[in-house]
Amino acid sequence: MIKKIKKLCDDRGSVDFVLLATILLLVSIGVIMVFSASSYISLHSKAYGNNEMYFFLRQGAFAFVGVIMMFFVSRIDYRKYRKKKFLLWGMAITAVSLIAALFFPAVNGARRWVRLGPLGFQPSELAKYIVVFFSAASIARKGERMKSFTYGVMPYLAVAGIFAGLVLLGKNLSIATIILGTTIIMLIVGGIKIVHIALLGIGAIGFGVFFILVEPYRIARVMFFLDPFKDPQGKGYQLIQSWFALSSGGVIGQGLGQSRQKAFFLPEPHNDFIFAIIGEEFGFIGCFLLIMLIILLLTRGLKVALNAEDTHGMLLALGITCVLGLQAIINIAVVSGAMPVTGVPLPFISYGGTALMINLFASGVLLNISIHSKKRKINKKR
């Protein structure tokens, strides 16, 4: 079966096989690890019907639909996403969804979800990519005008700032940081002046410091990040339990399904801290191999950007890759204690239907860009 897929991907106008295989492998690992990390909690919780398969079945269903959607999207010409009608509708729907989320009940002090019966939608996941789609299309049109601060920097900071601000109102600094960080990277590649890059760097540092200082709970996170054992049963609890999980995994791990920290010690082990469970069950080797897969995904994404057919495709592929890369870096850094605790899922691995579906949609766009870059190479050879 794999040989048939590879042969299909080697044909003219087909997707990057390595990129496709890496995405599918990460999704498969994610579904398996969601089951392993969540089975104990769901089995011993009435809220989930004492069903150990609760999260596994949901994540599996989202993965199945998401992969089909990814293949469908991969056949749609990515240049259609630069149309103003698509961008305006996408930005409007995203903005309305972010505002609507503020009127739903808070979950753990944050308002990030729009609830539709038994289903939930997290609009901040959509916001990350709609800013990428807008920036890629607009920067590609402007060309040399990108060197002007008024025309080449301010409009993108304004758009990114609006969406990041709406996300911040829902108490989600990490996603707001990813939105702004990705925009800055796209502006740098888009050709802005060096002096503007310096100003953006200073502004980004100021933004981070300001929004940490204005919220007492963020200040507490930074303080307990420096020494979580000051409050081992409170603010430092989650990081300490994550360290216990990673350290007990050793080199080869305890084995699939053998994690102890998932048994109500590490909160929400199938979400933001699933990497700690991977470390406990598969050890250093498992963590290393997963990180290598993520690096492979990012390098293939950057290769697609470099080989893109036009500037729009290059920026779009770069933006999608940056979103995935920044999320992965932040998640692993948080779990390992390299930065303060914040809620960022590990792409394709952590539980969450919204994040998985939207990431797979973006992956489909990335695959389509790779199709066009391969077509260009074939035409050049002729």
Quick structural gist:
One of its GO terms (cellular component) is cell division site. The protein is an all-alpha fold and 382 residues long.
Q: What features would you highlight for this structure?
A:
382 residues; transmembrane; Cell_cycle_FtsW-rel_CS; mainly alpha; 2 domains; cell division; cell wall biogenesis/degradation; 2% strand; FtsW
Describe the model.
The protein has 382 residues and is mainly alpha-helical. It folds into two domains: 1-75 and 233-382, no CATH class; 83-214. 69% of the residues lie in helices and 2% in strands. The chain contains 14 helices and two strands, in the order H-H-H-H-E-E-H-H-H-H-H-H-H-H-H-H. It has helices at 2-10, 17-43, 54-73, 84-101, 123-142, 149-152, 154-169, 173-190, 194-213, 216-226, 237-249, 274-306, 311-336, 353-381, and strands at residues 114-116, 119-121. It has a two-stranded antiparallel ribbon with strand order 1-2. A hairpin with a 2-residue loop joins strand 1 and strand 2. Helix 5 (123-142) packs parallel to helix 8 (173-190) and helix 7 runs antiparallel to helix 8. The two termini are 31 Å apart. The model has no long low-confidence stretch (mean pLDDT 85). InterPro entries: Cell_cycle_FtsW-rel_CS, FtsW, FtsW/RodA. Pfam families: FTSW_RODA_SPOVE.
